[in-house]
Design goal:
Length: 187
């Protein structure tokens, strides 16, 4: 009797299994977070300091002490910090400090790309560093005229450094930093 019930149950389940396998179950395709940032429009930023530059109109700039500036991007939770120092026969020390600041991130960085910047017409010389990996900063630079002025800049995000997550914002701000370098003028 038990065998007859088992056979009936088995015969009943076979059609259900065949009918239920009609549609193939497929995994959902991979999707990526889409972050669209506004197109960058730049305006000239002038002040009482011995330099001027172009800045993204969406950024908020705040003066700090000694001609330093904080350029914030609230929607991206990031800030570019600019520091100005006059050159008083100490260019080697200033260069060494700027390079040391960048290479302190080598522990967390996957690699650091150096891009020299030279504009003899404006007397602006410097280096742009792109720090790839989970470092605290993803972009840094310094510019100088080698005789009077020295500026460093670095971007920091208000989030745990996870390069994959902040890469779109880091790329957007990197472009703004490069624009700042390229448009910098000494007074």
């Amino acid at each position: 009797m038990l065998q007859i019930k088992s056979t009936k149950l088995f015969l009943f389940l076979i059609p259900l299994l065949v009918l239920s396998c009609k549609d193939d179950v497929l995994p959902k395709p991979s999707s990526y977070l889409r972050l669209d940032y506004p197109e960058a429009y730049y305006a000239t930023f002038e002040n009482n300091c011995p330099f001027g530059f172009e800045i993204n109109e969406k950024a908020i700039i705040k003066a700090d002490k000694n001609c330093g500036f904080s350029i914030s991007y609230p929607k991206m939770k990031a800030t570019i910090y600019l520091t100005y120092k006059p050159v008083n026969g100490n260019i080697n020390v200033l260069l060494r400090d700027a390079q040391k600041l960048t290479y302190e991130h080598v522990i967390k960085a996957d690699d650091i790309l150096e891009q020299p910047y030279i504009n003899p017409e404006k007397k602006v010389y410097g280096m742009f560093y792109q720090v790839n990996g989970d470092a605290a900063t993803n972009s840094q630079f310094y510019v100088t005229d080698s005789t009077k002025h020295f500026i460093t800049g670095s971007v920091y995000f208000y989030a745990k450094p996870n390069f994959d997550s902040i890469m779109p914002a880091a790329s957007y701000i990197k472009n703004d930093m490069q624009r700042l370098m390229e448009t910098l003028k000494w007074k």
